[in-house]
Amino acid sequence: MGWKESLEQSVDQILETKFEEREGRVVPTSADVTNSEAVQIDGVFLYADLAGSAALAKNCPWSTTAKIIRAFLDVSSRLIRAYDGEIRSFDGDRVMGVFMGDQKNTYATRCAREIFYCVENIVGPKASKKFKSVTDAAIKLKCSVGVDRGTSRAVRAGIRANNDLIWIGRAPSMAAKLSDVREYPYCVFIHKDVYNKLPDSEKKEGETSIWETRTYKFAGEEHTVYRTNWTRTP
Known about the structure:
Elements (H helix, E strand, L loop, with lengths): L2 H13 L4 E4 L13 E15 L1 H7 L2 H21 L3 E6 L2 E6 L4 H27 L1 H5 L5 E18 L2 E7 L1 H9 L9 E4 H4 L8 E2 L2 E2 L2 E7 L2 E8 L6
Parallel strand pairs: 1-2, 5-7
Antiparallel strand pairs: 2-4, 2-5, 3-4, 5-6, 7-11, 8-9, 10-11
Helix pairs in contact: 3-4
């Protein structure tokens, strides 16, 4: 069999897959899911992205860029885990967390705002103080965090010894897209389905609402999302 025919056969086999769907009570890992399974979860997905890392790579030594991205991913990962979230993906300067349980909406939203705080008040100022290349290029470190909730399915993709989970559903896709929005100083965006599940204590500071309503187009449909420029101190 030639290489082209081998690829065609592999695609045919994948497209003929009959998934056995089961409900997940915890966030699955790739080791928990076989090639013929789909694990359904009701979760909240968070994507945190370090905006402007291309400017770092262009203007700073590679080691400086690496340290700053590592610092961002470190604090983001620590906060996700502190709020009982599970980390399931790193992609360059972006990390994905998945939250389950009774407090998943509140925890994910608090986590998002605390990541925002850390970039504004810890990672950014420390990087500017330590690295001359950052200040010389007038680089302002920013982040963008997207959060959405809903039923999603995890399936395994890739080849033997080189595979991972992919997540099927609006929530992971929407959260990822929202983390691409650049409207500084509004750095946290949540879908209305998350907002509607939040207690009033997460919507206001005193009598002041900390969220603003926006419309976001996703997959050809208009969605209501909320943005905030209010950080939260860890």
